[in-house]
Write a structure and sequence with these properties.
The complex is a heterodimer of chains A (160) and B (92). By secondary structure, chain A is an alpha/beta fold. Chain A contains four helices and seven strands, in the order αββββααββαβ. Chain A has one domain. Chain B is α+β, with helices and mostly antiparallel strands and 92 residues long. Chain B has one domain. In chain B, helix 2 links the parallel strand 1 and strand 2. Chain B is globular. Classes of the chains: A alpha/beta (160), B alpha+beta (92). At the A-B interface, helix 1, helix 2, helix 3 and strand 7 of A face helix 1, helix 2 and helix 4 of B.
């Protein structure tokens, strides 16, 4: 098996003239935890993805530090999905959004009862936000509010 | 999901699964439905098994693929060559 890429070190080398980026580091802190009280087959699942997915007609994400959220109906027509993100090569995701937004795979898992149901809304944002403060203050509150409003029991996060 | 194991180890999410795929292919390659299905289903199976907060389960899935310059993608991503290629393709 190959060795995982050391992204923190690579990024430091790539932007060497700049001061090192301060990555989020929660090591040594208590890890938040919620027990799963029931089987997956009866859980309400929401998909969350930071790959810059939006629906045709919605405002595309702008590059860098865009902390806005897009609400995507879980029954969306996949042909209407678009990608805007500056931080990863988006070609594969543009041709098949499941690469970063596996909603079609989750729908299959509802059909065969691996999971209970999908929440009405999937939540997407654009992962290239350099400010941890802005993530906490601007992105997370509306995201949490939406998850609570739709009584989500399992939030499946796919980063990009 | 995690494809950046070192970043996830620092963030310490409650439950995580790692696949050794490039960023932008967290759930595999376009049109490879079987591959995508295997990743998502393995993630949910791991979710049901994790009891230790902060666990990262390695799903044991590695993409064997070459970068545009012929090297293994692991050696290429987020290097200067990667950035040059990336900027060029972004500008079309």
């Amino acid at each position: 098996m190959s060795v995982p890429v050391d992204y923190i070190e690579r990024t430091r080398e790539l932007y060497a003239p700049l001061p090192p980026y301060r990555w989020s580091d929660n090591r040594g802190l208590p890890v938040p935890w919620a027990s799963v009280a029931k089987p997956l087959a009866s859980c309400r699942v929401a998909l969350g993805a930071s790959g810059g997915v939006y629906v045709e007609g919605q405002q595309p994400f702008h590059f860098k530090d865009d902390t806005s959220l897009r609400m995507i109906p879980s029954n969306v027509d996949f042909a209407r999905l678009r990608i805007a993100h500056f931080g990863y090569p988006i070609g594969d995701a543009a041709s098949d959004p499941n690469c970063v937004f596996p909603l079609e795979r989750l729908r299959e898992m509802v059909t065969d009862r691996t999971i209970g149901e999908l929440a009405p809304t999937a939540l997407t944002f654009m992962g290239g936000i350099y400010s941890q403060r802005r993530v906490h203050e601007e992105l997370i509150p509306p995201l949490l509010q939406q998850l609570q409003a739709e009584k989500v029991e399992l939030f499946y996060l796919v980063p990009a | 999901m995690s494809v950046g194991r070192d970043i996830t180890e620092a963030v310490c999410p409650p439950r995580a699964v790692f696949v050794d795929y490039p960023m932008g292919n967290e759930i595999g390659r376009p049109g490879r439905v079987g591959e995508q299905r295997a990743i998502v289903r393995a993630a949910f199976a791991a979710f049901a098994q994790i009891t230790e907060p902060g666990s990262i389960v390695d799903l044991g899935m590695t993409l064997a693929a070459a970068a545009p310059d012929g090297r293994d993608w692991h050696e290429w991503v987020y290097t200067k060559d990667f950035r040059a290629h990336f900027m060029k393709t972004r500008e079309g």
